[in-house]
Design brief:
By secondary structure, this protein is mainly β. It folds into 3 domains: 175 residues, Jelly Rolls (Sandwich); 58 residues, no CATH class; 72 residues, Acetamidase/Formamidase-like domains (Endonuclease I-creI). It is built from 2 helices and 23 strands. The longest helix is centred in the last third of the chain and has 20 residues. The model has no long low-confidence stretch (mean pLDDT 93).
Length: 320
Amino acid sequence: MTRTHRLIPKKYYFTYGVAEAAVVIRPGDRVVTTTRDAGGGDEKCRPIPESMKELHGGRAFQANPLTGPIVVDGAKEDDTLVVHIRDIKLTRPTAYSSHSPGAGAFSSGAPGLNCRPHTAQPARDWLWKLDRKNMTGTLALKNSKLKKATIGLAPFIGSIGVAPRFARVEMSVTPGEYGGNMDNIETKKGTTLYLPVNVDGAYLYLGDVHAAQGDGEICGVALEVSAEVTLTIDVVKGRHLLWPRMEDRTHIMTSCSMKPLMDAMTLAHVELIGWLVRDYGFDRDEAYQLVSQASTTRIGNVVDPAYTVVAKFPKKHLPT
């Protein structure tokens, strides 16, 4: 019998790894929980109390606080974790973004994270007003001919992943084969995310919900907001993935994160072609040709310690 677990976070993490379980669930269970924004603000923009922060050895890099870990009873190493994203509800009427000398595609880079030989950008904060009924966000423009700009909202989970392989611990701002901070706009309501189980229990974390974001997250900060997230979590036994996969109503997708960007691009499409061959019966050369002419590529981020590329293939071209 499946259950619904309401996870009220008592601690927030700044790393992906094995830690004390926030909740233990069975495959097929539903989890309803809340997330803080990338800076730690809740639905009233209140910061995380120091007593609720993960601290081990030294102070962790405090961005993208994660809710979790959700431990899945029966999930074993080399299984696949199946995460159905049922709902993402924004829990406040504003979102923030910012420009920073240490973040973004045009920045000088934070030491040890994403250094680039570019001129540092001046710091600046931006406040967006959210219309959650009509799902739009509006920014007042003080120095432009256009006095305000309104865009559509498309909420997604910026950071979601499991404990990495080989007992590693990775920062919450870093993406990898375990998922992590992919900043991938496809991790939205209605998407099913497939993640490799690297340790027994999987240890799923999530956070960093974005109300909207352009491809690449160019300035390094999306529309950062708090949220309530509903997931249904299952397990595929004996099926090991090398990289995250996704599907929604119209596409199957692969997500790979590395530098340089071209390597991430190549690997995401190699993974997509391999998926078509293994699961859908395509000849490899024919899959290569079809992907070359019918796929779509989305750039999750070009600002994190690794860059994320999503390769999408239309389900209408899959065998029935």
